[in-house]
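FORM 7B: Structural annotation worksheet

SECTION A. Query
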Amino acid sequence: MRNIIQQIIALYPSDNLIIAMESGNNVSGRPGSLLPAPNGNPNSGLFQLINAQGVPEEAVSIYRIASIEITSST
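SECTION B. Predicted structure
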């Protein structure tokens, strides 16, 4: 999942995401970063989402993500 999220951050930095969690909850925002940063810790476990102004909104556990939808992509 970490590698997929890194690709989403690189390829779709300004697109909106809808993330479905295994609990049934959804979160949305733009891709921000992995926390802690992958270069400092190969076991990063949080995916930070940002808003349209680039302000960090919330972080979700990558181990609880059921699916990621990129709203502007097929």
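SECTION C. Observations
The mean pLDDT is 90. The beta strands are 17-21, 26-35, 46-50, 56-61, 65-70.

SECTION D. Sign-off
Analyst initials: ____
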